[in-house]
Design brief:
five-stranded antiparallel sheet, RCK_C_sf, alpha+beta, Alpha-Beta Plaits
Length: 618
């Protein structure tokens, strides 16, 4: 008798609750607590799960080889390769070019702008990982809003949501799809209906979801999004940093004359950061520590109210006013752009305390303000621990912003004046991606092999430099996959998944099958808001498959419902990384996501479940 039949029987007859199940449930509980509280970085949590599962091998059944098997898993390597391929396409500027074409069409009509936003992000996200797609389009869409006199708040949540639904067009749209495919293939040994997904396995349903989601965002959603950031807002006003900026002059006889910016910063103390040095009308933006000071220099400093009061009595400097607008901080030639930097998912800044002087030295940008979780932080930004999605208001020379736009630590929320893309390599990059998709779709070779071949092709053709290959990978996602895959195996092997399936059948088995399917979609969506989308499919796909078998339903339908729900997290900024990327630039509050996302989640739950029933049956 196959294990699939056994799981089906266990889902209808109460299995014995064993010590193995209790231990695995305990590990799952630990994982949930760590994911929700974020007490440890997500990649560290993943490594800890591997260690705990192997240490508890007598109960979990996870030996050292199985514990590290996630690193060599097909899904992990495929996601790694697809991230590199996405990075190669990004280096050509083709995504931004598509966005700018759409912007030219949009003008100042909000609905046209929303149409352009969804059209630029959703189809592309079907073939490139949607995380870098959103990172690339945030500055483009922000510029569309500003040129069209529209609040960026109206467009940035739709950008994130459109990329999520676009990721459901193909197997390679999101890492979640690839992982779900691998789990489905592994469970295929137990359930005849389950198998790995083909490239366009669910494209027909994905296309319906994209169309319905886009129509909602264009015609309904934007009415539900407040204008958190005014159109073409002056940054100093929107970040309310005017009270924390001051101009001080280096007076005659000052000990700072002949000294350096570094020495002046040391004398002023850590709460005062020199963001500009003005001499004879010329502005040195984000000056380095070695910049020399002379009598008559005007120092533009960023500090808190108490320290500004202290400057009034400081020896050697004299307050001479305060800048009141962005224009006053710009040089005569227009250089010295003020923009926002979003701390990215795999940034080295995550967990670090903000040191404006060190930031200025490393990034060449002066920190003016900080926004966290939609809230402005005015006083005492120095020493704040930075987190994913935190948005820094900075000023930097244009060439510095260009360099920053190519770094993986931050996302620049405005396009650099002269971006440096490998536009000549765009046709090659597109051809390589078409080849990767075609080889996998025609089942000549698996997606794992075609994706790795595509990586080699991008390096050989110069689309990517060898060192850039590593920068393109979001390593926290790779470690997360490696950590949760053995957790899923433990759930299956210990019988914990079958036990949970029995509880589902007991509590909801009397309902119509399509309602149970819908409940799995809703539960997956809610869990994804608390933990990562990849973790949610690992935990729920085995349970969904066993529950489906227990009520005589189609396990593949339930696997698809979990997969779609895990990749469409609309209720808050935490459930999906693209939501975090637009959090700061849009000036959003947590409730904004729920206000526009809850109706969309409910709408798509109905559309997706009915679509699954129509195309695959339940």
């Amino acid at each position: 008798m196959s294990s699939g039949v056994l799981l089906a029987q266990e889902a209808t007859t109460q299995p014995e609750l064993t010590s193995d199940m209790l231990v695995v449930f305990g590990v799952v509980g630990l994982a949930l607590v760590l994911f929700v509280t974020e007490r440890l970085p997500i990649d560290v949590t993943a490594i800890l799960l591997i260690v705990v599962l192997v240490v508890l091998e007598p109960w979990t059944g996870i030996d050292p080889s199985t514990g590290i098997s996630g690193f060599a898993n097909d899904a992990t390597i495929t996601v790694l390769a697809m991230l590199i391929l996405s990075g190669g396409v990004a280096r050509t500027g083709i995504v931004q070019a598509v966005g700018r074409r759409m912007a030219a069409f949009a003008g100042d009509n909000v609905r046209k702008q929303l149409f352009a936003t969804t059209l630029a992000s959703a189809p592309v996200s079907g073939f490139l990982n949607n995380t870098p797609v959103v990172a690339l389009l945030v500055p483009v869409v922000s510029d569309v809003a500003n040129r069209g006199n529209t609040s960026p708040s109206k467009l940035l949540i739709p950008l994130s949501y459109a990329s999520q639904v676009g990721g459901m067009l193909t197997l390679i749209g999101t890492s979640t799809n690839i992982l779900a495919s691998d789990i489905s293939g592994r469970l295929g040994e137990d359930y005849a209906e389950l198998h790995q997904f083909s490239m366009f396995e669910f494209t027909q349903l994905g296309a319906i979801v994209v169309v319905v989601g886009s129509l909602y965002l264009i015609f309904v959603g934007h009415y539900l999004i407040p204008e958190r950031v005014p159109p073409q807002a002056d940054y100093l006003e929107s970040y309310e940093v005017g009270d924390y900026l001051a101009d001080v002059a280096v007076v005659a006889g000052s000990p700072l004359a002949g000294s350096t910016v570094g020495n002046a910063t040391s004398k002023f103390g850590p709460e005062i950061d020199i963001v500009q040095v003005v001499r004879d009308g010329d502005r040195a933006i984000a000056p380095g520590r070695d910049t020399q000071l002379v009598e008559g220099d005007i120092l533009v400093v960023r500090t808190d109210r108490d320290a500004i009061t202290m400057l009034e009595d400081a020896f050697g400097v004299e307050p001479v006013g305060r800048p009141t607008s962005t224009a006053e901080l710009s040089s005569e030639d227009g250089d010295g752009s003020i923009t926002e930097l979003v701390v990215s998912l795999d940034s080295r800044l995550v967990g670090e305390r903000l040191d404006p002087e060190a930031f200025r030295e490393e990034f060449g940008a002066a920190v003016l303000g900080l926004r966290r979780h939609g809230e402005l932080i005015g006083e005492r930004i120095v020493g704040r621990r930075l987190d994913v999605g935190d948005t820094l208001l900075v000023q930097a020379p244009s060439d510095t912003l260009d360099r920053l736009s190519r770094r993986d630590d931050v996302i620049v929320a405005r396009e650099p004046p002269q971006p440096d893309y490998r536009a000549a390599k765009a046709p090659i990059a597109i051809a390589i991606m078409i080849g990767v998709v075609a080889v996998a779709a025609l089942e000549i070779y698996p997606i794992l092999l075609s994706a790795l071949a595509g990586v080699v092709a991008m390096i050989v053709t110069g689309v990517l430099e060898p060192n850039e290959m590593y920068d393109a990978v979001e390593w926290d996602i790779i470690f997360l996959l490696a950590g949760v895959i053995p957790l899923g195996i433990a759930l299956e092997q210990s019988g914990a998944a079958a036990y949970l399936a029995f509880l589902v059948v007991e509590t909801a088995g009397f309902l119509p099958t399509i309602v149970v399917l819908w409940l799995f979609y809703i539960v997956t969506g809610l869990i994804t808001e608390l933990i990562s989308n990849n973790a949610s499919v690992v935990l729920l796909i085995p349970v969904a498959a066993a529950a489906a078998a227990g009520i005589g339903a189609n396990p593949f339908a339930f696997v698809l419902a979990v997969t779609f729900a895990a990749s469409t997290a609309f209720l808050g900024p935490i459930g999906y990384q693209t939501n975090l990327f637009v959090y700061g630039p849009g000036g959003y509050k947590f409730s904004d996501y729920f206000r526009v996302g809850a109706p969309l989640q409910l709408l798509l739950s109905i559309v997706t479940v009915l679509g699954i029933a129509f195309f695959w049956g339940v």
